[in-house]
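Lab channel / #folding
Pinned by the channel admin:
"Please post every new chain as: sequence first, then the structure tokens as a reply. Keep commentary short and put observations after the output so the thread stays searchable."

First post following the new format, from NK:
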Amino acid sequence: MEFFHGFALADEAHFFEAYRDSGDFCISGFSYGAIKAFQAALASEKRVDKLQLFSPAFFQNSDSKFKRLQLMGYKKNSAKYIETFTRNCFLPHGIQAVSYGEHTLAELDELLNFVWQEDDIRALAAKGTKIEVYLGSDDQISDVPSAYAFFKPFSTVTLIKGANHFLQGDTL
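Reply from TO:
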């Protein structure tokens, strides 16, 4: 099983253990990593039975001003941006410890400007890949209603009541 990390993160897969399939033919990813997992599954010539997208980054309905402000904040002080971003990922619940990895402005730009394409989702499903999407109802990062509406026709979508971007809730 291959797991793709969220933007600026490392070793966060444990947050999704309750949902992750550990099979050899499964690819999964969290947030920005969901984009990378999707791209890997779509391009793969090997067998991929299941693609799991945990809180996939979904900003295609966000306006350009929002995206510019995010990029400007990162350019001004990337460490502060990542700290604030991480805190927001855990809202409305308490922040938990995370490990950080490498990150670049280009990755943030890709995350903010990636457009999920229906034809690509259909092509992946046509290859026999089952697509599972997990969303937190209280996610303060992604556009959950739009992501839910987009992915629902092509995949199994699980909306976790009270969960944040890390799919964590009050009791987790």
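NK: The CA atoms of residues 105 and 132 lie 29 Å apart.
TO: also worth noting, The first strand starts at residue 2 and ends at 4.
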